[in-house]
Design brief:
single chain; mainly alpha; four-stranded mixed beta sheet; 4 strands; 6% strand
């Protein structure tokens, strides 16, 4: 009897590829299972497609003109002379200001402002022309309702400009009367010429300033809510054990397969937003569209990772997790730094601001898209977003325990 011995050693690479194929099949199976869940629950369709598109189109069409224009204002002309009428026409000529009313006295203008009919009014006192001709120093007043901060500031800027121009016009007339030659006139009126050059947003477009932060912030909020709801739905429907068995008792595979469809859909939404902003609307983008698309993908996985981490800390309590995600998403608008600078906040808030994905999205957007810097200059924010995406690793043991022991809490 002849016995053949098999001296071949086992191939470790073959075992690795088999395990990899098995993991791939399990992720694909869980992904298809999740797609069937989407088909039976229209809420996912609304959260992942309809609501983001509505936000994109709503905010961009709301601020399509770039700046607020023709804001209602009023004038109280108690002097009623050719000088005061010239001042009235100058105010109405500004693009942002629309003089809708001319009142006879201060009380009528104040009442109109209290009723919300106007944002500001310009008060020209009686005797303005007489005091100017007598070389006295008359006073022109304007009142703004700063409860509406943006329109009040626009109108106040126009009224300030009108006041300065009116004073210069009267000075010019007086100098002409004294025989000052034209070659010396402008040197006396404006000895220093001021040039303004708004950088990165030359047209002072409010949509460039707000849409690029409000819409990504809302998308981050929707991503975190959808992520926690999708995971918590397994406990709510008491199918978490089934998911755990399908994944081969691996929480990482279960979460990866479950959230892969959301990652793909939200990445497509971010890509559409970038194309809409930087190609169709013409927003400034000095780093190239591929960089912003990559930033969108990194933001999606970072937001999902942060939501998975929060849910892992409170496994089984879906409502509490969603409430914390909502609070975190809303606070990010205040602590991201695009409305109030983070450097001017207290030390505690400056440290807290780094825990919001929107803060780092804002820093990368400003430095790359507006300033045109390379990603090498914003690597700390890129690293932080990557850390957000890797946060679920810290709570995987708790997910393993949650799949086997925790129940849904009403």
């Amino acid at each position: 009897m002849i016995i053949k011995l098999n001296n071949k050693a086992p191939n470790p690479s073959r075992g690795f590829w088999r395990r990899l194929q098995l993991i791939h099949r399990r992720i694909i199976f869980i992904t298809r299972r999740e797609a069937r869940t989407f088909a039976t629950r229209p809420l996912f369709l609304f959260d992942m497609i309809i609501a983001p598109l509505l936000c994109i189109f709503f905010f961009t069409t709301l601020m399509m003109e770039g700046l607020p224009k023709r804001l209602p204002a009023a004038i109280v002309d108690a002097d009623n002379t050719h000088v005061s009428r010239i001042a009235c026409r100058m105010i109405d000529a500004f693009e942002e200001t629309d003089v809708k009313y001319v009142f006879r006295n201060f009380s009528e203008a104040r009442q109109a402002m209290q009723e919300g009919k106007i944002y500001a009014f310009f008060y020209i006192p009686k005797g303005l022309t007489r005091d100017c001709e007598s070389q006295r120093q008359p006073t022109i007043s304007f009142y703004t309702n700063d409860s509406y901060y943006v329109p009040a500031n626009f109108i106040m800027r126009d009224m300030t400009t009108t006041s300065v121009l009116a004073g210069l016009a009267l000075t010019r007339s007086s100098l002409w009367g004294h025989g000052t030659p034209d070659s010396e006139l402008m040197g006396i009126l404006q000895p220093i010429t001021i040039e303004t050059h708004p950088m990165k947003n030359a047209f002072m477009d409010y949509s460039v300033y707000l849409s690029n932060m409000l819409i990504p912030g809302l998308l981050i909020l929707l991503i975190m809510l959808t992520t926690t709801y999708a995971i918590g739905l397994e406990w709510k429907t008491e199918r978490q054990t089934e998911l755990y068995i399908i994944s081969g008792h691996s929480p990482a595979i279960a979460l990866a397969g479950k959230l892969l469809p959301q990652t793909a859909i939200y990445t497509v939404i971010f890509t559409f937003m970038d194309v809409w902003f930087f190609r169709y609307l013409g927003f400034p983008c000095n780093c190239g569209l591929p960089t912003m698309i990559g930033l969108g993908f990194l933001t999606v996985v970072a937001s999902q990772g942060f939501a998975i981490f929060l849910f892992g800390l409170m496994a089984g309590e879906m409502r509490l997790s969603m409430c914390i995600c909502s609070l975190w998403g809303i606070l990010s608008f205040s602590l991201a730094g695009f409305t109030f600078p983070v450097t001017a906040m207290s030390t505690y808030l400056r440290v807290l601001a780094d825990w919001f994905p929107l803060r780092h999205y804002y820093l990368i957007y400003v430095n790359c898209a507006l300033d045109g810097w390379s990603l090498a200059y914003v690597w700390p924010s890129v690293v932080v977003l990557c850390c957000f995406a890797l946060l679920p690793i810290l709570v995987l043991p708790r997910y393993r325990k949650a799949f086997l022991q925790f129940k849904y809490i009403e």
